[in-house]
Amino acid sequence: MNRIGVVGTIMLSLLVLAGCSSVQAGSPAPDPARIELDGVDGQVGRLRLLSVAVASPGGRGSMHIAGDSAALLLTIANDGKAADALIGIRADLAEHVVLLNGDAPPVPRVDVPVPPGSTAVLSEVTGPHLELSGLRETLRSGVSIPVTFEFRDAGSVTLEVPVRTYTDVRPDKYLEPA
After folding, report:
1. CA-CA distance, 142 to 58, in Å (whole number)?
2. Taken in order 142, 94, 122, 117, is the CA torsion positive or negative?
3. SS3 category, 7
4. What's the rounded Cα separation, in Å, for the pair 6 and 28?
5. How is the chain split among helix, strand and coil, in percent rounded to 5?
6. CA-closest candidate to residue 72, choices 132, 147, 17
7. Is the whole model's pTM more than 0.85, yes or no?
8. Which stretches of the chain are DSSP H helices?
9. CB 139 within 8 Å of CB 70
10. 148, exposed or middle or buried, with CB in 10 Å at 0-12, 13-18, 19+?
11. Which tens digit of pLDDT belongs to each residue from 45-99?
12. Structural contact between residues 144 and 161, judged by C-beta atoms closer than 8 angstroms
């Protein structure tokens, strides 16, 4: 290969590699608050359901076994001027959906207030969260299940809720420094 061919091949390779960069010069850095590995958002009336997901069953290859429980995690934002409340959750794949607060006993009746202009955070298994109890079948990471959320005033909405996939790398590790 002649010298011009070698130089041309190197220049072409550099251009291709520069074009494949996920964050190009002059473009804004990705917003870490918007990065979701898996979760779904929904809305009913002035209520937004954010980052709704079933917790990961654990390490790679693990699953939620039929008969066990699985955490259902979400945040509810009320963009309205009136208070509302989450009063019921249904999932055909679970015998019951209960409200838990960390390791405390389950609350038999779900009633989660959502004040106007505020949020109800049910996204940490160490704090208040929902639990799919008595799973009727095994759940693997990456599948989605229909879950219906019922609110006192806004009505109900059914979402296809994903079972989170296991990751041992934090999502912010995918970002390049700004």
Report:
1. 12
2. positive
3. helix
4. 35
5. 15, 40, 45
6. 132
7. no
8. 3-19
9. yes
10. middle
11. 999 999 999 998 877 667 888 999 999 999 999 999 999 999 999 999 999 999 9
12. yes
Give the position of tokens 């015998």: 95
Per-domain residue ranges for the chain? 36-168
Within 8 A by CB and 6+ apart from 45, the residues are 80, 84, 151, 153, 154, 155
SS3 152: coil
3-state secondary structure 52-94: EEECCCCCCCCEECCCCCEEEEEEEEECCCCCEEEEEEECCCE
Which amino acid is it at 12?
L
Residue 71 tokens read as 């955490």
- By C-alpha distance, which of 48, 44, 47, 89 is closest to 71? 89
- Give me the amino acid identity at 48: R
Fold of the domain built from segment(s) 36-168: Immunoglobulin-like (2.60.40)
**Do residues 140 and 63 touch, judged by C-beta distance below 8 A?**
yes
